[in-house]
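ping. complex inputs:
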Amino acid sequence: MQFELTREYIDILKTIIENKNEAEAIALMKELHPADIAEIYDELNIEEAKFLYLLLDGDTAADVLAELEDDDRDRFLKILPLEVIAKKFIDRMDSDDAADVIGSLSEEQREGILSHIDDIEQAGDIVDLLHYDEDTAGGLMAKEMVIVNENWTVLTCLRELSRQAEDIDEIYYVYVVDDDGVLKGTLSLKKMILSSTSAKISNIYQPDAMSVRTEESDEVVARIMEKYDLIAIPVVDSIGRLMGRITIDDVVDVIRDEAEKDYQLASGISEDVESNDSIWLQTRARLPWLLIGLMGGICSALVISVHENDLGINPAMAFFIPLITAMGGNVGVQSSAIIVQGIANKSLGMESTFSRLMRELMGAFVNGITCSSIVFLYNSLFSDSYALTISVSAALFSVIIFASIFGTLIPLSLHKIKIDPALATGPFVTTLNDIVGLLIYLSIGAYFYGL
Amino acid sequence: MQFELTREYIDILKTIIENKNEAEAIALMKELHPADIAEIYDELNIEEAKFLYLLLDGDTAADVLAELEDDDRDRFLKILPLEVIAKKFIDRMDSDDAADVIGSLSEEQREGILSHIDDIEQAGDIVDLLHYDEDTAGGLMAKEMVIVNENWTVLTCLRELSRQAEDIDEIYYVYVVDDDGVLKGTLSLKKMILSSTSAKISNIYQPDAMSVRTEESDEVVARIMEKYDLIAIPVVDSIGRLMGRITIDDVVDVIRDEAEKDYQLASGISEDVESNDSIWLQTRARLPWLLIGLMGGICSALVISVHENDLGINPAMAFFIPLITAMGGNVGVQSSAIIVQGIANKSLGMESTFSRLMRELMGAFVNGITCSSIVFLYNSLFSDSYALTISVSAALFSVIIFASIFGTLIPLSLHKIKIDPALATGPFVTTLNDIVGLLIYLSIGAYFYGL
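pong. complex structure:
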């Protein structure tokens, strides 16, 4: 039942487009979901995509536009006249998608498009939605919802529902408001169907519905919907008036983005880039981190140069520099990843920093003893320098302990001062670990060699 | 409106529990959502939790049990008699949650509980669900759904709905089947409300509903629901008979877990551990990766020891070892993280490996030139060895290029042979990068010093 995009499929499609075979193209597109068509567009050049686009019926065309990747969409909107964008797309899209599309355009294009929208209510909704920041509840919400007054009966409701329902794809809840438009609660369609038509809404609705304020951040909205297993959540203004609703499918993207952002930060990528983004964009996201690493490397060089004489006498000390720095990095990243994920999915609980650190230290102790014993054994067998054998193992143990302390405390501290703790798992901390690790290693080495 | 768990709240609650103040405890719990109560339980000891638990009414108790973390739940089930578990919880839970709970128990406990369930239909559903692997569509699905026959009228449907609806919290779709139970399509409640009561279902339902097979993996289910913005998806067996349905809230967990797993693997953590897991569990998840890093460190030591004489003559060569290995690691992790995320969120598209590699190389070229120029400048100013200045910059450039090739090709290759590509961003590749980086650096160094 699901569509699987293959190289062959694209090739066949490209041939059809090349031959300008409209009938066949329409037949192919008819079988597909707008999300699949959007996926196909990603693989076509702009002329091919345009040919297909003009064959789609209005609603499908609008749905496909909403599903397109941002850069594909921008590419596309550039070649279409504003009037076509307004009438063929924006007018038919859900208000939240329409606001997203228009929000990414220039002021001038925006006004041009808005002036061409026939449905004045839709235009008003879009202008309202454009006021909110993209990453707040207001920026996520849509205006399409069924609203009923608490004083109505189920029968009035059902009539209102058929009137309002036209514009709305799916209805999961009906929102109940008072005469001032203040949200009172929700009413499920199931409840409405199962109640007598003369029942008063105020007697059957579910009061105390979960809701969020328009200015709430999208990550908080995602967390609430995830925690309480909500399919949709109403959005209210500062005095409780119902402003819109957010559905779970919009929030799924937020949840994925949030989880991915942590991973990207940990990998030293500071913007949301994808494999097929431009080199300029990728460089901008990646080079700054590399420069931090570079500065760290130069600091490391300075640290080692202080011990130049030791190395001149005992070059074998240099052999284990990569081992020490790599292990410090690995342990630090492990420790901080666990904290970062705990913060992200709220599983950290109430445990105090101190007891968390103690537990982390016990783990580090086990890992440190194991690893430094192995290296001790290795050096006992293959090295004839007792000082080296002791230095490397003692330094490795200390580095593992220190890295786990850093790895635990840095993300917790960043979180406390409201900086994204995922930064702590990135090159920044790895670099810091390198330098501290070297300091420890070379100091211990100098001490033992000096004995 | 949302509940925020604070240290103070827990302290107040603990005092109430200590004083065995049942009335106050009941009043506090009444205001909370089961998900909030589950969060509170996480902070209490088992005796305190038990005290609260026995005060909850049946449905709330069952909901709380479903929301509890796995280890909290296991701890809890251990102290309750099987009959209480069966009657107070399992009987009142949705079939998917009930199967999850029972699935985590021993064979013996399972049979004991099943024999105590009064509702034979619920017991049958649970036994059916236990057959499926946890990470398949069958393992995710629940049996609670409203099923109607295509030959019925809307009126029959509404009657059936009120009969079936009792057991089901929320209804988003009604599933339409033929006389053999084969899924024909879906019918939204909205459509049902808006149609005449004498309309035949076969004329108004939506055919060709998206569905998944019971054996489909949970990650594929998540991807389909996410792509097509589905709130619920029906699950069918190999001949198309309707077996159950999966709702988006169960899939949100899969999406989050999947994104987190990549991050954990990249951080060198091989099992799903959390900050408050036992030291033994954490060590098991982390030590193997550290040992890989340790082996890599020993290999690095061997590589450097081959150049012992060079280092004896030019100890300054050792200064830049951490810089070279760190930069190789950083670049490799960046490149592979982009590929791994592209694979995970299907944004890679159809681009060939070759053209992807070319683009990555161009980016590496820009980053490589920038970084090695900076180091060149630094060494020109602060080092009096021309050979060192050239060696470090040339090696850094080469290492950046090689690391980006590795970082791109290794995850793509792993993915091709069906190994999780996220492994490639972990310590494994960082370690490999260290060794190759050192080989390049020391070879180039030996060459230039030899000039």
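The CA atoms of residues 53 and 86 of chain B lie 15 Å apart.
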